[in-house]
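User: I'm preparing a small set of examples for a lab meeting where we compare how different chains pack in three dimensions. I only have the primary sequence for this one, and I'd like the structure in token form so I can line it up with the others. Please keep the answer compact; I'll paste it straight into my notes.
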Amino acid sequence: MRSLLVSALLLASPLLLAAQEKGAWTAESSNAKAITGDVIFSENKIGIALVNFPIAQIRELKPEEASAAFDAEAGGAGHLYRLGIAANQRFLHKNTLCGSEEVEWMATYVQGRKLRLAFFSNPKPPVFTFEALNNSPDLCGSFTYGR
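Assistant: Understood. Below is the structure token output for the 147-residue chain.
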């Protein structure tokens, strides 16, 4: 019986990690307050400044990838999502997420009551190493939210 319970928890753990992102998040960082405002996650979309965008979860971030992307400590969970936000899409104060580039990828990291987002513009998936991210012209910005 105990092994059955452990097996069920292990199978459900990816679903639990993805569920951490769901719901409403309040903008906390200055760039989140200036550009996106609060965000809302659901199973297959993200709402930014009252506009919904379809998202598709591609994979979980490995701990070392989350650390590189978000300077994250152990204990949280991150995911890579595919999405499409047009370059001319305006948000708060007529700001865009990525200048004149279309947003194609979003990385998330949830730890406790904090959500961090990073948006990327390249059609190819981002590479999550310190070196690649520090030299990446495709990283549009990082944003922090809370509950």
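A couple of notes for your slides: The chain has one domain: 2-146. Residues 2-146 form a domain with the Lipocalin fold (CATH 2.40.128).

User: Perfect, thanks.
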